[in-house]
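Structure first, sequence second, as always.
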């Protein structure tokens, strides 16, 4: 699995999704990742790009304010992204982590089935396979996914603090995915738009360039550009 960072355009897109409460856009964004582990790792890598710590806003009964997290406190208990061979009846299934692409999370769970008897499965193949299974076989597969994949995902913390009141746990549900975006992607859309426009107008950037740089890198380019203009004004 290739680990990347969220690009500038990714972050801008995600921020617009949150601001506009665009659930369809959320699933479209998530579906481009191979699985949920890749998505979570991309969030973590982006949050800590060139940073030792980050600030997260917390609002609980007795406290409202920012707490400081380091890398080991963020996205804790992420399972290793690997697949398992499982024999169910006369079938050899390869089970991995799910892709997020459907509002119905029972369908998302079925994307844990990656192949059968060595043949990779597409979405339609998975649905046909499940529909053709006897009930007892389907229950065995479903229980395996619940107990060995989904339970591991539901043991992940978006952030983990000594004070359990401040902890934020991940859940593989629609609400859990929304919480992931809202909690870990806190950017100002007006600021993102402003920096992009300045870099296009004054820095010779084009729209496609923002598919290859991160917000952190764009901020560095912006600061350098500002320094150059400040020097020229002296």
């Amino acid at each position: 699995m290739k680990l990347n960072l969220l690009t500038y355009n990714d972050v801008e897109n995600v921020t617009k999704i949150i601001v506009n409460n665009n659930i369809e856009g959320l699933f479209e964004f998530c579906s481009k990742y191979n699985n949920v582990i890749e998505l979570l790792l991309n969030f973590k890598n982006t949050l800590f790009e060139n940073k030792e710590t980050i600030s997260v806003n917390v609002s609980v009964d007795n406290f409202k304010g920012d707490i400081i997290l380091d890398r080991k406190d963020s996205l804790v208990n992420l399972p290793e992204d690997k697949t398992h061979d499982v024999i169910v009846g006369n079938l050899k299934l390869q089970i991995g982590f799910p892709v997020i692409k459907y509002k119905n999370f029972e369908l998302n769970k079925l994307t844990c089935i990656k192949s059968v008897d060595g043949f990779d499965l597409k979405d339609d193949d998975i649905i046909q396979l499940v529909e053709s299974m006897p009930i007892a076989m389907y229950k065995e597969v479903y229980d395996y996914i619940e107990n060995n994949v989904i339970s591991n995902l539901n043991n992940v913390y978006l952030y983990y603090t000594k004070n359990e009141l401040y902890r934020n746990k991940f859940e593989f549900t629609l609400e859990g995915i929304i919480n992931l975006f809202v909690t870990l992607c806190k950017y100002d859309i007006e600021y993102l738009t402003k920096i992009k426009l300045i870099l296009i107008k004054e820095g010779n950037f084009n729209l496609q360039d923002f598919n290859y740089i991160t917000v952190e890198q764009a901020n560095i380019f912006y600061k350098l550009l500002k320094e150059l203009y400040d020097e020229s004004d002296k």
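Margin note: The two ends are 49 Å apart (CA to CA).
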